[in-house]
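hiii, so i know i said id send this last week but things got crazy w the move. better late than never?? heres the sequnce for the chain we talked about at the cafe, plus the structure i predicted for it. fair warning i was half asleep when i ran it
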Amino acid sequence: MVTKEVENISLMDDGLFKFIFGTNKNIRFLEDFLESYFNYPQGYLKNKIKVKYEVALPKDNYKQKNIMGDVVVESTTFVINIEVYQYLNRISLDKSDVYIMRLYLSQYSIGSEYGKGKPVIQINIFKKISDEFKGKIEDKSSITGNFKIIYIKLDKIEEMKYTNVRYKMWL
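okay and structure toks below
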């Protein structure tokens, strides 16, 4: 009898995460994840979102640092950036703030009035967090005007048993 060893790779792996959720070929997986997390009925987002894989977020000038979002999702009513971090610390939180601001501001041209763009949602999925932020942001979200930042902590992912909570099945 021939046995085949299969490697189990977590969705916390950056490359696998981008492949599963960041390609139009697999868009139904992303739709289902977002539908389940936001409690939309199954199929609600079908054909309503576009996904971009490792999208370069717009910059204001040549000298500004390039920034690549993991998975950027656009619809007619919102923009979502999903980032996966093995370790959430000050640097990753600063990057998250830059992502959400760049995505929001890229909707406007010079001289246009703010407040008329689509809301931007930043989803930060992480496994570990620096001591500086423990107990402050895990499993919480912050909302201000047209911005929402959601933190999903997956520190117990290896210990997780089967669940019938739809969005947790993805993680």
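btw The radius of gyration is 17 Å. thought thatd interest u
miss u guys!!
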